[in-house]
Amino acid sequence: MGPLISRRGLLRASAGAAAGLALASCGDGGPAIPLTGGAKADLPDYVPYQGVAPDLAGTKSGVLNGYRHYPAEPAPAFPDGPPAKGPGVSVMTLTFNPVPPPPGRNPYWRALNEQLGTDLDIEIVPVADYPSKFSVVVAGGDLPDAMLVLPTASQQPAMFNALFEDLTEHLSGAAIREYPYLANIPTDAWRWTVRNGGIYALPMPRANAGSIMFYRSDRFKERRLDPHPADFKEFRQLCKDVSDPRHSRYALGDPLTTCYFVMEMLGGANMWREENGRFTYWLETEEVREALDAVRTLTKEQLLHPDAYSVVGKFKDWFGNGQIALHYDGNAGWNDFYRQYARNNKGLEIDGMLAPGFGGGEGSHWAGYSSFAVLALKKAPASRIRQILRLANAMAAPFGTDAYKLRKYGLKGHDHTLRGTDPILTPDGTTETALPTGFVTDAPLSLYFPERPDVVDRQHSFQRRAADVLVRNPTEGIYSETAAKASGGLQLKTDDAIKGIMQGRNPLSSLDETVRLWRREGGDRMRAEYEKAWAAGPRA
Over the stretch 43-53, which tens digit does the pLDDT of each residue have? Predict the structure, then answer.
């Protein structure tokens, strides 16, 4: 599934945080700025990097390239020397991890600066604090050279127009070829950067495959269970067969993502459905009623963890430690589960389950957003903008290059050791390379797991199957002011309401009032803004 797995917390944290502040330093005058509009901007040319051949080739439909091993001789990313020579560059971005040591105590950071040819000064803000910090900095007007802008930041068109550089002349169409690693970023990710008819930012590319229903294949194998149910009935039986309440083992954890998985079985809308320019929210569809009723049945049969409706933030631990056998999570979770839990859970093995059709046949799979957020550049002279773009181009150096290896794995012998040709992070490396370069900009994601090369084949196999039944969210890259302001708080209300239905506290008929609340408190305005933007911009 796509956006709401990785972004749910951000939606909630940023709801209203920037309201009224984004324009505090912009003034009230001037012409009205359109909500969005890609009609005037040619998106950058897409020029895939050909320097390192993958072991498992990706596809235009979004399957990532897979690599079982890092090249023994990485391709030189910057044969002409450090690419971003000049004054230091300040960036404000977020992190989901502990903040790494500063350059004075971080050899990795110093080596990265040396490779870039400038001092990269990153102000690192914990993810929960980022929306508030962003609002304060924008309101104060003392901006860094570049800063991450979340999709939930409000008043974006006017803010971009007043504070950030229009990059269209540098990046539109063939101009992007001046920055070949940025040109290697797929087109869909660039849709998030278009505001006011121009390109105003750089993307942070992510996997189209979105989220995955992970399953503990070791537990399934132990019980000789087939992890490929043919329909919901077989899925329900599979959940019964893998559960063992006497030993505190259950099939499922998060009721919301379980509902999304059943929606995939039903071919349901990926948050929104577009038909002839008209938008329908997923809660308004007929499929959601059947999905809620199905999860209600799973809950009644005690196939969800008994604390599933009363806690948050525990689902990963339950899955990693074996308390639940299935867990829907982001694409990156595949490697992370092995790294975080395998040592204390002997025999842990993970694979991905694709949703079957609810009554048989093919199901569907919800695509994820193609960019996590965007990086906007403060207005500056053209020479300074070009230097920062050269730095961003360097930060997007792709898998297989020496620059990518340094950026992700640090210094050989200190931050990583080699197992064959593959870099394995040391404890120092795990701490030091936590510098959030992937939240500045990044190369397109690749499937690679140096600790377990065999896992890459499973990941690639899942993505190939998912690509055949991918359902995209039609609001991808489209800006809605109402969604930016209201989504978090409104989603809390609707989430609580549908959890009440799935838990059996509320009747299924109460969904009607939930939909009316959603429409009344912003849903209809979101719809109108999305439809207006859809009519205005190209989507090819």
Answer: 999 999 999 99
First-last CA distance in the chain: 22
520 DSSP 8-state letter:
I
Q: Which residues pair with residue 281 across a beta bridge?
A: 272
pLDDT of the residue at 27: 38
Contact (Cβ atoms closer than 8 angstroms) between residue 264 and residue 364 = yes
User: Can you say how many angstroms the Cα of residue 381 is from the centroid of all Cα atoms in its chain?
Assistant: 32
Print burial letters for 388-402: b (CB count within 10 Å at least 16), e (below 16).
Answer: bbbbbbbbbbbbbbb
8 Å CB contact between 193 and 164 = no
Residue 359 confidence (pLDDT): 98
Give the pTM.
0.91
Tell me the C-alpha distance between 55 and 322, whole Å: 32
Predicted local confidence at residue 538, as pLDDT: 55
CA 419 centroid distance within chain: 30
Tokens of 111: 């080596």
Residue 320 half-sphere exposure, CB side, CA atoms within 13 Å? 18
The number of CA neighbours under 13 Å toward the Cβ of 199 is: 20
Q: 453-467 and 333-341 are packed helices; what angle lies between their axes, rounded to 10 degrees?
A: 150
Name the nearest CA neighbour of 196 among 439, 44, 31.
31
Tokens 């989430």, located at residue: 495
- Helix-then-strand count for the chain, H and E: 20, 16
Quick one: tokens of 489? Answer: 């708080």
Alpha helices in 325-381 (DSSP H): 333-341
